[in-house]
C-alpha cells in the first residue's frame, strides 16, 4: 500500500521549498498537481522528472480512481499551485478517500499563505481561524461576515483582486473599524502588506488598483467585557480632552492631506474620544 504525501510548495519564491519536499517529489511514483503547467516550472527548476498528472476541481472524480490505482504499487505526492495542498482546494477530498482506502497520508510541511500573512500582520496569533475564499455573491459574503462578527479570534481569508474592494466595503459595513492587514503577492517580487481599517484600505486600493493574490487578516472582535470598559474609558476621556485639542489634531491631519472622514476617524482613535464628539468639532471648523 502506497503513501499519499501532501507536499507544500512555494507560494511565489521558488527557494521556499524544503529539502525533504524535493526528495519526496523525486522519489514518488506520481505527482498529482492542481495545474501541471504551473508545477512543471518548479519541477524543471529543480530537475525533477517524476511523472505528473492534473488533479483539480473539474476532474477530481475521474482522477481519484487513477491516483488510488497508483497508490497500490507506489507512493503519490499531492501538490497545489502554491502553498500547502488540501487547504481551500479539492485535495481535502482526496485525503479522505485515501484514508478510507487504508492508505497512509503524510504531510510535508512548508509554505502557507494564511500563516505567512498572519505572522506578519501584527494581529494576535495565539487563536485564529482560516475561512478560505470569501463568497462571491455579496449577500452570502455579508451573511458570513455577520456570522463571524462576534468571534474574538483573528480571522484569515483569501480574496481575488476584482472582488477586493467590494469585500472591504462589506467588512467595513459589517465589522466596523477593527484593524486589518491585506497581504498581496507574498514572497514575490512586489510583495506588499497594507494595514489599517477596512475603510482606510478602501481608500488605498481605490488609488492603487488591486492586482495579484490577496490574503486578508482581520482582527478579532473585542470581548464584550472589554467593550464595556472601553465605553466607560471613552466617556471619561471625552471629559478631559478639550475641543481645542481635538481641533488642533484635526487641522494637523488635514494639513497632511488626510481626507475628512479619515481625519475624524483617526482623531477619535488616537485621542480616544467618541467619534461623534470629533465630528461635532469638525463641523464647527469646516462646516461640512
TrEMBL record:
It comes from Chloroflexus aggregans (strain MD-66 / DSM 9485). Catalyzes the 2'-O-methylation of the ribose of cytidine 1402 (C1402) in 16S rRNA. This is Ribosomal RNA small subunit methyltransferase I. Belongs to the methyltransferase superfamily. RsmI family. PANTHER family: RIBOSOMAL RNA SMALL SUBUNIT METHYLTRANSFERASE I (PTHR46111:SF1). Signal peptide: none annotated. One of its GO terms (cellular component) is cytoplasm. Pfam families: TP_methylase. Keywords: Cytoplasm, Methyltransferase, rRNA processing, S-adenosyl-L-methionine, Transferase. Its EC number is 2.1.1.198. It comes from the Bacteria. It catalyses: cytidine(1402) in 16S rRNA + S-adenosyl-L-methionine = 2'-O-methylcytidine(1402) in 16S rRNA + S-adenosyl-L-homocysteine + H(+). GO terms for molecular function: rRNA (cytosine-2'-O-)-methyltransferase activity. SUPFAM superfamilies: Tetrapyrrole methylase. It is found in: Cytoplasm. InterPro entries: 4pyrrol_Mease (IPR000878), 4pyrrol_Methylase_sf (IPR035996), 4pyrrole_Mease_sub1 (IPR014777), 4pyrrole_Mease_sub2 (IPR014776), rRNA_ssu_MeTfrase_I (IPR008189). Residues 3-201 form the Tetrapyrrole methylase domain.
Amino acid at each position: 500500500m502506497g503513501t499519499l504525501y501532501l507536499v507544500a510548495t512555494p507560494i511565489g519564491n521558488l527557494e521556499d521549498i524544503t529539502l525533504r519536499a524535493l526528495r519526496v517529489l523525486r522519489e514518488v511514483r506520481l505527482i498529482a498537481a492542481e495545474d501541471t503547467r504551473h508545477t512543471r516550472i518548479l519541477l524543471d527548476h529543480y530537475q525533477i522528472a517524476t511523472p505528473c498528472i492534473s488533479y483539480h476541481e473539474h476532474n477530481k472524480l475521474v482522477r481519484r480512481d487513477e491516483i488510488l490505482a497508483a497508490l497500490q504499487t507506489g507512493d503519490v505526492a499531492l501538490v497545489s499551485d502554491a502553498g500547502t495542498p488540501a487547504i481551500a482546494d479539492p485535495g481535502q477530498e482526496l485525503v479522505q478517500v485515501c484514508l478510507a482506502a487504508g492508505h497512509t497520508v503524510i504531510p510535508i510541511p512548508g509554505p502557507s499563505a494564511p500563516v505567512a500573512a498572519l505572522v506578519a500582520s501584527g494581529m494576535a496569533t495565539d487563536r485564529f481561524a482560516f475561512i478560505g475564499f470569501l463568497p462571491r455573491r455579496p449577500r452570502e459574503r455579508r451573511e458570513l461576515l455577520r456570522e463571524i462578527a462576534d468571534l474574538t479570534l483573528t480571522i484569515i481569508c483569501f480574496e481575488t483582486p476584482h472582488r477586493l474592494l467590494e469585500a472591504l466595503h462589506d467588512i467595513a459595513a459589517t465589522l466596523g473599524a477593527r484593524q486589518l492587514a491585506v497581504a498581496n503577492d507574498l514572497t514575490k517580487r512586489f510583495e506588499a502588506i497594507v494595514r489599517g481599517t477596512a475603510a482606510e484600505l478602501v481608500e488605498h486600493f481605490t488609488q492603487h488598483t488591486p492586482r495579484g493574490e490577496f490574503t486578508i487578516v482581520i482582527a478579532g472582535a473585542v470581548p464584550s467585557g472589554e467593550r464595556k470598559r472601553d465605553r466607560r474609558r471613552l466617556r471619561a476621556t471625552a471629559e478631559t480632552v478639550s475641543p481645542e485639542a481635538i481641533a488642533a489634531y484635526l487641522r494637523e491631519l488635514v494639513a497632511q492631506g488626510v481626507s475628512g472622514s479619515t481625519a475624524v476617524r483617526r482623531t477619535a482613535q488616537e485621542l480616544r474620544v467618541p467619534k461623534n464628539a470629533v465630528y461635532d468639532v469638525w463641523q464647527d471648523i469646516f462646516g461640512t
